User: Which sequence fits this backbone?
C-alpha cells in the first residue's frame, strides 16, 4: 500500500469527525454557520477532494492490480466516496428532491440527462462512472457497479468500465448493472435482471 493509499484510508473517519464537531457546534447554538459547516463536510468536502484527486489521478478503464507498488486511483476514489455507501441516507435525501441527485452525479463527473427518475433506494459505488440519457426511470434497489474485483493468486484484479444507459429506458426493481454494461435507447429491463460485464441490452 502506497503512502497516499494509507492517507486516504483515514478519509472517511476524518469526514465523520469533522461532521460530528459541526453537529455538536450546531447543538450548542452555532446557528446557520454550524449548519453550513455540517453540510459542507458531508457533501462539499468529499466532492472537492474527489475532483482534485481525479485531476491528478484519473481512473483508467480496464484491468489493473490492487496489490503492488503502484497507486490505484480507483482505490483512492472509493475511499473518498465510502461515507455515502456507509450512510446511504445522505444520498436518499437528494433523491427525494426532483433533479437534485442527477445534478449531484454530474458534479462527480457522470453524464446524466434530463427528467431522470431515481427511486430512493439505489446502490451506486462509483459516482463518476455512469452515463445516463434522458427520461430514464431507475427502479427500486437497482445496483450500479462500474467496477469488479476478483482474487488471482496473491493479488486482486480490478476491472473498471463505465455503465452506459440510453434515453427512454426503464430499469426494473432489483436489477444489477456491472462494468461496461450498456442499455440501448427505448429498452425495458425486467425486474431482477443481471447485466454482466460488457453486456449490451437492446
Assistant:
Amino acid at each position: 500500500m502506497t503512502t497516499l493509499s494509507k492517507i486516504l484510508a483515514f478519509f472517511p473517519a476524518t469526514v465523520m469527525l469533522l461532521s460530528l464537531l459541526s453537529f455538536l457546534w450546531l447543538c450548542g447554538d452555532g446557528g446557520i454557520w454550524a449548519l453550513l459547516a455540517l453540510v459542507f463536510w458531508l457533501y462539499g468536502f468529499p466532492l472537492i477532494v474527489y475532483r482534485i484527486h481525479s485531476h491528478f489521478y484519473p481512473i483508467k478503464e480496464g484491468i489493473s492490480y490492487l496489490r503492488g507498488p503502484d497507486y490505484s486511483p480507483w482505490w483512492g476514489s472509493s475511499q473518498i466516496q465510502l461515507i455515502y455507501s456507509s450512510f446511504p441516507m445522505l444520498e436518499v435525501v437528494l433523491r427525494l428532491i426532483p433533479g437534485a441527485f442527477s445534478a449531484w452525479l454530474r458534479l462527480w463527473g457522470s453524464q446524466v440527462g434530463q427528467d431522470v427518475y431515481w427511486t430512493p433506494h439505489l446502490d451506486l459505488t462509483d459516482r463518476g462512472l455512469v452515463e445516463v440519457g434522458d427520461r430514464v426511470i431507475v427502479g427500486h434497489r437497482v445496483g450500479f457497479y462500474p467496477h469488479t474485483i476478483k482474487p488471482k493468486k496473491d493479488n486482486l484484479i480490478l476491472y473498471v468500465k463505465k455503465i452506459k444507459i440510453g434515453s427512454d429506458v426503464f430499469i426494473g426493481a432489483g436489477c444489477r448493472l456491472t462494468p461496461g454494461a450498456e442499455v440501448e435507447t427505448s429498452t425495458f429491463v425486467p425486474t431482477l435482471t443481471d447485466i454482466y460485464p460488457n453486456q449490451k441490452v437492446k
Q: What stands out?
A: Residues 10 and 79 are 8 Å apart (CA to CA). The helical segments are 3-8, 11-27, 31-56, 73-86, 89-95, 100-107. The two ends are 41 Å apart (CA to CA).
